[in-house]
Amino acid sequence: MAPDQKDPVRMSYAQTVTAADLRAHLEVLASDAYEGRETAKKGQKMAAEYIKNRFRELGIPELPSGGYYQNVPLEEFLPGNGTVTAGTQSFSFGKDFFYTSGTTDQNLTAPEMVFAGYGIETKGWKDYGKQKHTGKVVIILADEPVDATGKSMITGTTEKSDWSTQRRLKINSARDRGAKALFIVLPEYEKRKQEMQHAIETTTLQLKGVKDEPRMPVLYISPQMANALLGEKTDVLALREKINRKGKSKSIAVKQPCSIVIQREKREVITENVLGYLEGSDLKNELIVITAHYDHIGMEGNVVFNGADDDGTGTVTILELAEAFVKAKKDGKGPRRSILFMTVSGEEKGLLGSEWYSEHPVFPLSQTVCNLNIDMIGRSDPEHEKDTAAYLYLIGSDKLSSQLKVVSETANNTYCGIKLDYRYDAPDDPNFFYYRSDHYNFARKNVPVIFYFNGTHADYHKETDEVNKINFPLMERRARLVFYTAWEIANRDARIVVDKK
Asked: What is the pLDDT of residue 3?
């Protein structure tokens, strides 16, 4: 059949992927009852059960290796313990300082400390200049300098810069200058601690047996602790006002050792990848893996983060694609290559479920033709909110195989007519999206991938990412693109080649 000639057979099965069915599944999985589907928590277990039962209803058989689940063993680290000592002074977790969930166990001593203003290094404001602080504890102020009218000295407006809103900038800047630890002074310590409570209480998960590599500890400290560390005559809040008033940074060296001990409680937990395996016909030893992560970030107090778009949309698309291909097989028109429909857990904790699969594959990666990964396809980003044309970001489609992108574009041009945007394939993409979803764990094993993505929006990782904001007709169209691409890859004579590194 010519590439641009429509095949009524595949079209008939694509049409079983419907907005109504996508909505019906999503209204369940992204409901409050599932408690935000946090990895290894009750809601994630409920979601796994729902997906498993749906595979069973479709007639997908259990895998001999373990039913529908691939168990993923994890180690969970609980925050809450830690001490800092400097001279005869001792400071405790909660009262004087806190850290968030990404902090690893530590037992270190720095020979001295240094106050480095706001810890900002950018055009128009330089707290570090040419100074290096190798092996020191660096103490900085939160936020950024403002003038008497409240205007930022970075942006020149009342709008805050990324130095206030993206903590990684200050963390990376201190790390680049050799800091052994970073202390960030919070002016309204108790208020800010309360605002960050979810990040403080959230546990850290990692795959069992993985060495916990120490990272530069980042502690948020009270002004009183900062004053004690910097010396009795120092008032850090008054110092902040002076820096703001003069519009000039200030550095203070403290020739005193500082020791940090963080020891978090550890316990073992299990999460699950849910696998639905559809065996192919004459090329059944070759495999396509279609993935989406079904976990999200859980709850904050009584507030549920339902993750309708992230990644409820990908999860329910998997269910619809499985239904379409199962129906085709029952009608004697099933795929030549096998397909693994896999919803993975632990993505929000660091791509853990897909990493485990890539290291412990149920089917050999050498026989895995490609991975199609769906992570957020139900919304529009700010650039496209007022644009009626259908669009979708595709990431990674030509990084390992020159053929995969061609197959994808042919499927789109023939059946879907979606505007495909490849901007996030750029090597200098500041978002690093290529590395931030589950496809990456296949790509790093040399398996060609496509990552389907609608971009971030105002509700990304917020409690407002709800079902009522999903554009189901647009989602249906995007989901069908994945179907048509998978159909072609599953049924073409030759497997997709890997011809790039």
From this structure: 55
Are 31 and 86 within one domain? no
Residue with the bigger pLDDT between 65 and 8: it is 8
C-alpha of 22 from chain center: 23
Check: CB of residue 29 under 8 Å from CB of residue 315. Answer: yes
Task: Kindly report the CATH number assigned to the domain that includes residue 258.
Answer: 3.50.30.30
Cβ contact 44:345 at 8 Å = yes
On whether both 92 and 161 belong to a single domain, the answer is yes
Residue 499 lies in a domain: no
Amino acid at 299: M
Confidence of residue 233 (pLDDT cuts 50, 70, 90): confident
**For the whole model, what pTM was predicted?**
0.85
Provide φ and ψ at 345, rounded to 5°.
-110, 165
The DSSP output letter for 330 is H
- Residue 185 contacts by C-beta under 8 Å, 6 or more apart in sequence? 139, 140, 141, 142, 221, 222, 223, 226, 236
Is 497 domain-assigned?
no
Place of tokens 């590194």: 501
Helix 223-230, helix 236-246: angle, nearest 10: 90
Residue 113 in any domain: the answer is: yes
**Kind and range of the H or E element at 38?**
none
Which of 212, 245, 263 is the endpoint of a domain? 263
462 pLDDT tier (thresholds 50, 70, 90): very high
CATH number at residue 44: 3.40.630.10
3-state secondary structure of 295: coil
Where b means 16+ CB within 10 Å and e means fewer, 138-157 reads bbbbbbbbbeeeeebbbbee
Q: Give the range of the structural domain holding residue 187, as residue numbers without chain letter.
A: 80-263
